[in-house]
Amino acid sequence: MFVKVTAKRQVTFPARVLAALGVKPGDRLELAEGPDGFVLRPRVIDRTKLAPLRDRLRRGRGTFDLDKFRGQPHERTLRD
């Protein structure tokens, strides 16, 4: 199977490939380099682990200080 690379270096995967990987819009794909080339792995976002951020990311409540947030202790799985 082949995919085409556009002038902007973008690729479109066939729907059946993304369905087989279980990838949905907003999910990430990881490219890992191995001895035989690159391996494509889905990195599905577990939205239940984002629940602790719910009260910190409301619109209309000022700005979110990313540096301050990164400096606070958090569950390791929240960091991507």
Question: How would you describe the overall organization of this protein?
Answer:
The protein has 80 residues and is α+β, with helices and mostly antiparallel strands. The protein has a domain at 47-74. Helix content is 16%, strand content 18%. The protein contains two helices and two strands; from the N terminus they run H-E-E-H. It has helices at 15-21, 66-71; strands at 28-34, 37-43. A two-stranded antiparallel ribbon has the order 1-2. The longest helix has 7 residues, at 15-21. The radius of gyration is 17 Å and the shape is elongated. The two termini are 30 Å apart. The mean pLDDT is 80.
Briefly, what is this?
The chain is an alpha+beta fold and 80 residues long. It has helices at 15-21, 66-71, and strands spanning 28-34, 37-43.
Spatial sequence of strands, sheet with the most strands: 1-2
The description of the largest β-sheet is: 2 strands, antiparallel
Could you name the ranges where pLDDT drops below 50 across 5 or more consecutive residues?
none
SSE ordering: HEEH
Overall helicity: 10-25%
Shape: elongated
Tell me the fraction of residues in β-strands, as a range.
15-25%
Task: Compute the average pLDDT.
Answer: 80
Structural class: alpha+beta
Helix count, per DSSP? Answer: 2
How many individual β-strands?
A: 2
Q: From the structure provided, what is the oligomeric state, counting identical versus distinct chains?
A: single chain
Terminal CA distance: 30 Å
Query: In angstroms, what is the radius of gyration?
Result: 17 Å
